Each structure stands twice: as structure tokens, then as C-alpha cells.
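Lecture notes, unit on protein representations.

Consider one protein chain, 564 amino acids long.
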Amino acid sequence: MAFKLKALIALGPIACFGLVLSGCGSSSSSNNSALPSAAATGTTTTPSQTSTATTVPPASPTTTATPPATSTPNPAVSPPAKASTPPAAASSSLVSNTNGGDACLPIAMPTADAVFKSAKKVFAHYFYPFPISVDNRMPVADYYNTQYLNKNGESNKWLPEGGYLRQRPLGVNTIADAHWRQLNMQHEVTAAIARGITGFTFNVMSVDQATTPTSQLHTMLSAAAAVDSRFKIIVMPDLTALGTNADAVVEIIASVAKSPAAYKLADGRLVVSAFDANIGSPAWWASVLSRLKTKGINVAFVPTFLGWTLFADLYSAVSYGLADWGTATANASDLFANDSAIAHDNNKIFMMPVDGQQYRPKNFEFWEAGNSASFRSGWMGSIEGDADWVQLVTWNDLSESSQIAPYTDTSLKRTIGTGYYDLSGYYAAWYLTGHQPTITHDVLYYFYRREPSTAKAPVQSQSDHVVGDAAENNIELLAFLTAPGELKITVGGKTFTKSAPAGMMSFKVPTQPGIPLFTLSRNGAVVFSFEGGVQIYGAGGIPSGVADMTYWSGSAAKSGICSL
């Protein structure tokens, strides 16, 4: 019982398991979504109150104390619909143009060669029902805009929930090519590599993903091979959908074994994971792996659990490594910091979960991620805990709002869902190279919701509720600074200020109606300022009458606003 003993000493995973539901409050979409039948198949048919701050000095992740934030009421007698107009000194520095370069990242990313040369790996969990385009139509009239994000979409199927989704992928133009699905996946692979992601763990919920040559699984394998032969796919049978259908699991795994894009160890073993792996007993998995071996397929099995220390001893004999699905709360993310050491002490590799946010409109529930705090905590646990691999949960599961791929809403703005994606670049560079990246220029990120957690949602049959940690209602400004400066958040007729050192700093203030204005100043002069990309509404809720607990995010530099 070595794993359990170590876990009891560390307290982390056990405390995490007890904190909320199994897996610390997260689970696969296949377990909770009522996915549209066509979208979930293996075919590609079109479907019918106080301000807080933490700091990280540039040379170390250790937090240092800074003076408390101050709030100065503006002269306005009532909160404006938009953020207050900046003072004259700032007007010439108000950033309104967009770019896709240094406004997105405060560092120079390592080269692709450096990323793939690392012994460590970063995988993002790919959920195939949500490609960047479902139907190859122009974004303004595609299935996402007209159905998934429409409260009356799919013949009012999701009207009680206010609609199926709250976010969508960034729009892509129609492609006049029969292979448009693969070309779109190639775009996703390219985008992933650009932020230090070395592969996808590919969730598989149906055996036709193996048997259909044009399935999403096989299309992704082709896409990865076409973009960069070093970008690898780990096949992940989802046992919440497949159950203990051994024939299906064997066929799914065997179908990728000969693909050059499938991840294999140096000794030739095919790396395989499985979501909610404990649905199959250790004996059941031993039989599956034995059947694969008779086919000439030797497997390095890295099962993913919801509460991995509860199963580690039982599955040790059939496993090369171990993984957990993780959590989307900052407090629980901290508890994974020692898990890699526990696995290493038992001669197993560990794939660390890094979760951004979890919000499931379909279930009327969300987990409190603390703006970017859960995401940053998971990454720091991976770096300081010496995790062998990272699994970003997820790349694109829009039904759980956990995607780190850039996202938007029906407005199709390309500036309001870039934060988690870009932060991945910063932390992946650190994790893969072993060196904290040098901040080359100032970049400000924001993370906030467009309404408080208690806002009304009259269109829905019930209100959304928080799971685990208490809900927070804050606006976060996450600054990456080359030198000390003063941060300002202006919203709701008030201006909040915070002195910030060089390095990374999180600055939070209470949510208020309006459009936040974010400003960086030095020596009394404005360096640049910009408005957040979405308006915040008050207790009455957003005009559509549905709830939206999404953390919207973006960034800017002196050169412009990040647009991807």
C-alpha cells in the first residue's frame, strides 16, 4: 500500500478528493453531456469584496508582500455603463488597435526544436465533438452561433439551461476543399505548438472512431503528421462512454498503433491512457493489454483517474505511469504539488493535471477557479513538483468551459478568450526548458466574468450553483512587468491602484458593472491603458436572461491588444 501511505503523509490528494466530488470536482464531458447525436459519433456529419494581490518576482516563484491596493471614488455620481474616460495624460496611450504578436506574450517562446527536445511533455486533452468548425460555414451563421450558443437552438433542446454552450472556438472561414476537417485540425495543431504543447491526449467515446477511416481520431493523426512529426497523439478511451467493452477498447487502441503520429516511447511501446480508468478492474485491464500484446502491440499504460491515489496501488502492476483529471479550484490545485514525488517514489511517471476553469451550463454548475489562480497553481505544481508530463484539462471541451484554446462568443471577437492559451505559453516554456522565461516587455492580462455569480437568469429553469469552494466575484489584472510600475483598474465609477514590482503580479478588485479600464503607469506617466473586451452587468444579469459564469480573458501591450 505504498501509494496510499505516501498520500496520507502528503495529505494532498486525499484532501483534494474529500474537498468536492471525485477527481476534485471535474469529470469528462462524456459523463455529463447530453451531446447531440451526430456531433458525438465517429463520423464527421454535420449535426441536425476586498482587493487582493500576490506577486512573483522575476527570478523566483516565491510570493512577496506589496502595499495594499487603494480605491479612489471617481466624481461620477452613478456607475457609468462603460469605464470612465482616462485622464488626458493617458488618452494618447489608450490601446485600441489589435495585433497577434507581443500583445499576447511577454516573452520570446522557445523554438519548436527546444520544445520537442525536452524530456518533459505537455499534452492537451482533445474532445472531438467540438472542432473549430462543425459544418464549414461562415462563423456568423455556423452551427455554433445559430444552435449551440442560441438559447432556442436545436429546437429549444437546451432552453431550460439557457443554451448548450456559452463559448465557441474562434471563427474560421469556409474552406473550399474536401479535406477541410483535416485542414482545421492542422490549424489547431499549429496553434498548440505555438504555446509549447507537444501533443494531444485524444478522448475516444465510440468504437467507430477506430473503424471509420475519416473519423476525428484518424483525421487528427493525419493532421499531426502533416504539421510536425514530433507532435504526438495519446489515444484515451473514455470508459464513462465505453464501459467495460473490452472488444471496443482493444480495437480503438489497435487502430492507432501503426500511425507515426501515435506517441511511442524510445523502446517502441505505444503510450495509452484512459479516462476514468478504474471503471475497468486491474484484471480487466491486464486482459486488454494481453490481447493487444498478442497483436504485437506493447503498451505503456498511463491511466487517468478521478482521485488517483485511491487506485494507484491496485493498478500499479499494469501501469507505466499514473495521471489524475484534476480540479478547477485554486485551493485544490495546490494539493497536487507533491503527487509527482509520490509516483516517482514508486517508480512511476506522473502526468499532472492543469485545469483552467470548469463551468457546465448543461448542469447549472461551476467551480470557482479564482480567475487565473487555478491555472497558475496547476502549472506551478507541475514545475516545482517535477512532473514528467502535463495534461491541460482541456484543449477544447466547450461543454465544460475548460478549454484553453482561444475562444469567443457570438460576437466573434478574437480578443476576449486568449488568456489561458497565452499563459500556457509562458508556463510551458518554463516547464519544458527548466528556466523561468525572461520578461521582455510589459503585458497586462485580464480575467473576469461578465456578471456576478448571484445575478438573475430569468430564462433558465434554475440558477447556476457553485461546487466546492465559495464563488468569488473579482476582476483580475495579471501583470508581467519589466520594471516596477503602478497598476490601475477603473470600473463602476472607482479607480483601484496597486504598486507592482517587476515580474508577475496578480491584482484583484471586486466586480462592478461597467467595462473595466486597465492601466500601467510609471513615474506618474501612463505607459498604456486598454478596456476589457466584455461588459460587466449587475445583479439583474445580462440582457439575454441566461447566466454566464465564464471567465473571459485577454491581454494588451503598448503595441496593441492581443487578437488571435
